[in-house]
Amino acid sequence: MKRYFLVILLVIGVLLNSCITNKDLVYLQDKGDGTESSLILNELPKPYKVQVSDILSINVKALDKELVGIFNPVESANNNMQNDAGLYFNGFTVDLHGNIEFPILGEINVLGFTIDEIETKVESELLKQYFKETAEIFVTVKLSGLRYTVTGEVGGTGVYTLFQDRVNIIEALANAGDISQTGDRKDVLVIRQYPDGQKIHHIDLTDIKAMKSPFYFIQPNDIILVKPLKRKSIGAGQTAIQNITTISSILSVLVSTYFLTRNL
């Protein structure tokens, strides 16, 4: 009997300790001395530098629209096709050498440049090679959406595109259905592309200090991977009620087994 009693206690202990608590679920908790509860994010993310395979949307404007028509041959098409496919076919893709092919100007190297730097570069080249200063041209350059991938313990895995300049990781996850109850918010992986290859980074989204992390704001082509909690791997319930139900079932089986073996 004592052996069965010890087994029962062990099972109960494991199941009760495997409950998913608020500390596992709540984002941006103050885990320090309370001074972080009103944390202000003073440091903005560094400007993104364009990489290979990025797609740029470049628009040249002037008082005389006919004057810049050659540089915007697909402007009307873009107005009717503002989606990933339209941007893919009508945007300027950065090739393996870091160049884009621009009308009249030919190849322009943009690898490692920020969006503002590319605007200045294109405008400068246009004024140098094609326009006069009196043309009063205006160049706008944007990334054709912030594209990222989410996989793992989330509501909806997949590749997403948001048409915003800045997106933090919580917004990105919310757009993918948020992290499920069995997802590990304390160790979310961000796989980021760099000129020399991909690197894996870790961020604890249950800690308010995550807002100071360089990976709090996502970048184009980021992969966000949410691992399952260890509790899920042992098949424990997510809540106390689920665990009580499991314990009751196990107790019922153990008691029945005990009396059956006793009567043999």
Helix-strand blueprint:
Layout: H1 2-17, H2 22-25, E1 55-61, H3 75-80, H4 84-90, E2 92-93, E3 99-102, E4 106-109, H5 115-129, E5 138-143, E6 146-152, E7 158-162, H6 169-175, E8 188-194, E9 197-203, E10 223-226, H7 230-233, H8 240-263
Pfam families: Poly_export, SLBB_2
Subcellular location: Cell outer membrane
Main location: membrane
In short:
By secondary structure, the protein is an alpha+beta fold. The protein has 3 domains: 2-19 and 236-263; 22-43 and 146-232, Outer membrane lipoprotein wza domain like (Outer membrane lipoprotein wza fold like, Roll), CATH 3.10.560.10; 55-143, 2-Layer Sandwich (wza like fold), CATH 3.30.1950.10.
Structure class: alpha+beta
Calculate the terminal CA-CA distance, rounded to whole Å.
15 Å
**What's the structural domain tally?**
3
How many separate helices? Answer: 8
